[in-house]
Design goal:
The chain is largely without helices or strands. The chain has 2 domains: 56 residues, no CATH class; 40 residues, no CATH class. It has no helices and 2 strands. It is elongated.
């Protein structure tokens, strides 16, 4: 585990290193460059190898819409998306509003009546 700072080398004897990110101060979304130089047991250093890592915000924000349960005919009313959230450090950048159709629901029809032929009484056995 290592916390990287710009232009500050970190020496290890292990071939892998974790880039530790502080949740309180995560890397902002964007492109970051990391460099590796390896040194052999004779003290010979390699040429630098550089890689770019793109940090992306892959967490979708959560939309929350508040609306009155009823509105008076012919009167305006307000919808609010103020309670919508994104994980820090992300922020809601815009709200896209749209009125959409009500899904079609099956209308219950009459309950079918099943007619059975009349049952004649069974004569008693003598």
């Amino acid at each position: 585990m290592a916390t990287f700072s710009l232009n500050t080398p970190i020496e290890t004897i292990e071939p892998k290193i974790e880039v530790t990110v502080d949740p309180a101060q995560p890397l902002a979304a964007g492109v970051y460059r990391f460099q590796l130089v390896v040194v052999d047991d004779s003290g010979n250093a390699s040429d630098p190898q550089v890689v770019e890592v793109v940090v992306k915000d892959l967490q979708r924000p959560t939309a929350v819409i508040d609306a009155p349960p009823q509105a008076e005919f012919g009167k305006s009313f307000t919808l609010s998306g103020e309670r919508s959230t994104d994980l820090p450090p992300g922020k809601i950048a815009k709200y896209i509003w749209q009125m959409v159709p009500i899904p079609q629901r099956p209308i219950p029809g009459p309950i079918p009546i099943i007619r059975r032929p009349p049952v004649s009484p069974t004569p008693p056995n003598p």
